[in-house]
Amino acid sequence: MSRSTMVFDEQERERLVDAFRASLESAASARESSEEPAAEPGEPAPAAVDLATLLGEMAVLKNELRLQSRQFKNTLDELRCFGNDLRDHGARLQRELERAREQAAAIEQQTARRFMLALVDLRDRLQNGVDAAARLPSSFLARLLPGSKRFTASLAEGQWLTLQRLDELLASHAVRPMPVLGERFDPERMCVVGVEAAGEAAGVADGTVLREVQRGFFHHGELLRVAQVIVSKKANRT
Questions:
Q1: For residues 41 and 33, what is the distance between their CA atoms, to the nearest angstrom?
Q2: In angstroms, rounded to a whole number, what is the distance separating the alpha carbons of residues 175 and 117?
């Protein structure tokens, strides 16, 4: 019997079950009637039980149950594969999310670095303005016009206050100046822009930072900008 002939719909299966139940009831009724007195003349005789038909219907039901069990197993296998696919998809999404977070953190770090470098450059300009105002000589015109001197002093004080506020802002973002004066030259965080001879009496070793041309800075403990320095070099003996 092929598989196509053994598959029944729900109505056909119920019909076979009802027929099997009716056959069993008929068989029980037949056994009871055999023990009772014979039927009166003219009464219909009970229907005989067809054992071959019952066995055939039982075989059909057994095959149907086997097919249903196989289909249920196939459904479970499909659900298991679907669950595995969902788990793999979730793992891929998690990896992509972590990669996106790392990229976002790297972009944020680069943006913060560029912003801090811009603030440091602004600080250099303010520092140059404050230093230039402090070096202004007292001219004859300034002595004749004291108002211009007070204006210059007020302007220099405003620049100094702005510089101080900018230093506080940099410190709040973990930007710290790099101490280099008097230290040995470090090529990883310093850049030499000049060399000056130091006498033996000064007791300064070669490669010692004498002056700072451009200040270096750290950001969260990492190098933000190298320092431009002038280092010492002893004169050669003749």
A1: 15
A2: 10
What is the rounded distance in angstroms from the CA atom of residue 39 to the CA atom of residue 46? 10
**Residues 4-28 pLDDT 10s:** 444 556 677 677 777 777 777 776 6
Domain 177-238 architecture? Roll (2.30)
Which residue would you say has higher pLDDT here, 205 or 23? 205
C-alpha to C-alpha distance for 126 and 170, rounded to whole angstroms: 14
How many CB atoms neighbour CB 159 within 10 A?
A: 19
Contacts of 80 (CB under 8 A, 6+ apart): none
- CA 7 to CA 1: how far, in whole Å? 11
Residue type, 64: E
> What is the per-residue pLDDT for 96?
93
> Sorting pLDDT into bands at 50, 70 and 90, what band is 55?
confident
Residue with tokens 């770090």: 109
Q: Which pLDDT value is given to residue 2?
A: 41
Which residues sit opposite 227 in a β-bridge?
A: 190
Q: Quick check: 213 and 181 in contact, CB under 8 A?
A: no
Closest to 207 in 3D by CA, of 225, 180, 176: 180
Domain boundaries, the chain: 3-36+45-97, 177-238
Is the pLDDT at 57 greater than 50? The verdict is: yes
